[in-house]
Design brief:
Layout (H helix, E strand, L loop, with lengths): L2 H4 L4 H11 L9 H13 L3 E4 L5 E5 L11 E6 L21 E4 L2 E4 L6 H15 L8 E6 L7 H4 L10 E4 L7 E6 L1 E10 L2 E3 L4 E9 L17 H16 L2 E8 L9 E8 L3 H18 L8 E7 L4 E3 L1 H13 L3 E5 L7 E13 L2 E10 L2 H16 L4 E8 L9 H14 L4 E5 L5 H7 L4 E4 L4 E2 L7 E3 H16 L6
Parallel strand pairs: 3-6, 3-7, 7-21, 8-20
Antiparallel strand pairs: 1-2, 2-6, 4-5, 5-23, 9-18, 9-19, 10-15, 11-13, 11-14, 12-13, 12-17, 16-17, 17-18, 22-23
Helix pairs in contact: 2-4, 6-7, 6-8
Length: about 475
């Protein structure tokens, strides 16, 4: 771990972030970071425990003179999205994140940084460890598995938390205060298919789509970024229509909450069409790169010859797959009619796997309106069922309905304006914050969400602003000093 990270100001925040990032913490494999956090709380002599699902709760009494303030919950999630560049040799299960300073940004070498939500967690840790920060009674809630199912928040039982106000430190623009978010649901289509013998007189090719920006499938879905699975499908569709291309296998995308950056497909073409196919593909590749030249300047599409495979996908199922993915919606489905510039409903075709007689398509559908979420999920379901897939809707979680009359919102607005000489943007976001889920069992808790500026979350381009972290630190400390008195 580079010492230059630990020397950044505020040191209390960056040192805790460095400590946290030394611990492997993939979603659904949080055992080590759970023990790390429990040891941290116990080392401070604070009440520390796990709930039934393994969320970690640490309680710290109010500092002197703050005993009459409302108790608060400071909340962040322990897991992080694991993404790396193809040419990066890194084992997320064993290695800590390798960070470096690049101007105003902290980055990781070829991987995600973990600032989502590591900086929020580090802030809470710094407050818990402090001896000179004024604050009311605090419950630090560190949830698990936020990134791949919201499991920790969904399984947190009512009655455990005593706080009246929740500060969720998990947003990514420091001039925004979030008061609402989208819910989500996983849409997964699967089916078996028959593999046929490769026809004689064929040649094998590998198609590779790479170099896309990727990004957060909620926060970045409106930016016109390329989806590797959709781009790959265009290439397959054209070559199937014009040259009878047959699919051997496809491996596209990775996590549901990451816009897919890469896709690789092995295919065959009749040898008689070999030259025409390559010429046609170069024209289509040129067209696609022209379309995306502004948002995806590093897009690369390669077509290379490979050894002829022994088996190919059944043509009937293949046609249904290609047409089904073409028909399936990807990107923004509907903008909010109630909040300007807010994406209401969207879908990310995140993962496409075709191999050894089995295919799978994984999507994450998001919406701040529950009925619209299921409307789009059912549209996707229909597109996939039309070619014989079994479609499973799972992992549904609710959105967070904005409360414009929130007491803590008023306090944060005043502090922000005083510190920055401008008003904050009060927004709802198209990401899946845990507030809506936590509010199910804690409906009377006043909730707010904010955080430092983080760009490129869920991609190896993830980076955190150093200047913004200083702004974030100052903001949190004054919020803690101004928590209202108990009624």
């Amino acid at each position: 771990m580079s010492q230059e990270i630990r020397n950044l100001e505020p040191k209390a925040l960056w040192n805790k972030f460095a400590d946290l990032n030394a611990v492997p913490r993939p979603s659904k494999k949080e055992e080590r970071v759970i023990e790390f956090m429990k040891n941290f709380g116990e080392s401070l002599g604070l009440e520390t425990f796990e709930d039934d699902i393994r969320n970690v709760i640490i309680r710290k009494p109010a500092t002197k003179g703050m005993e009459n303030r409302k108790p608060i919950v400071m909340q962040g999630h322990l897991d992080m999205v694991h993404q790396k560049n193809n040419d990066t040799d890194f084992d997320f299960d064993k290695q800590g994140i390798d960070m470096y300073v690049d101007g105003d940004w902290v980055r990781a070498k070829g991987t995600t940084l973990g600032a989502d939500n590591g900086l929020g967690v580090a802030m809470i840790m710094a407050v818990l460890e402090s001896t000179n920060i004024a604050h009311p009674a605090i419950e630090a809630l560190f949830t698990i598995d936020e990134e791949t199912g919201m499991t920790g928040a969904l399984n947190l039982k009512g009655g455990i938390l005593q706080g009246e106000i929740l500060l969720n430190l998990d947003t990514e623009e420091d001039d925004e205060i979030d008061i609402g978010c989208a819910g989500g649901i996983d849409v997964t289509a699967t089916r078996s298919y028959h593999e046929e013998e490769t026809p004689e007189g064929s040649v094998g090719y590998q198609i590779t789509v790479k170099g896309l920006n990727g990004g957060h499938s909620g926060m970045d879905i409106h930016k016109g970024l390329g989806n590797a699975n959709k781009i790959m499908n265009r290439l397959l569709f054209d070559a199937f229509e014009n040259f009878g291309l047959q699919i051997v296998e496809i491996n596209g995308g990775s996590l549901r909450n990451a816009i897919p950056r890469e896709s690789v497909a092995n295919v065959i073409i009749a040898e008689m069409y070999d030259e025409a196919y390559v010429f046609d593909m170069q024209e289509i590749i040129g067209d696609i790169k022209t379309e995306f030249q502004t948002t995806e300047p590093n897009l690369t599409i390669e077509i290379t010859k490979i050894d002829l495979p022994k088996k190919v996908m059944d043509l009937g199922v293949q046609e249904g797959l290609i047409r089904g993915i073409y028909a399936a919606h990807n990107g923004v489905y509907r903008m909010s009619a109630d909040m300007a510039d807010l994406v209401e409903t969207s879908n990310n075709i995140a993962r496409v796997i075709v191999k050894d007689g089995e295919l799978s398509i994984g999507c994450l559908t998001r919406s701040s309106v529950e009925t619209s979420k299921y409307d789009l999920a059912n549209a996707l379901r229909s597109a996939f069922e039309l070619f014989g897939c079994e479609v499973n809707l799972s992992g549904s979680y609710p959105g967070w309905t904005p409360n414009v009359n929130s007491e803590i919102l008023t306090i944060l607005e005043k502090i922000y304006e005083k510190q920055n000489n401008e008003k904050p943007k009060v927004v709802a976001c198209h990401a899946g914050l845990e507030c809506g889920i936590l509010g199910t069992n804690y409906p009377d808790m006043d909730m707010i969400s904010f955080g430092p500026t983080i760009h490129g979350a869920h991609s190896p381009d993830e980076r955190a602003s150093i200047k913004s972290s200083q702004k974030f630190w100052k903001f949190v400390l004054e919020i803690l000093e101004n928590i209202p008195e108990k009624k």
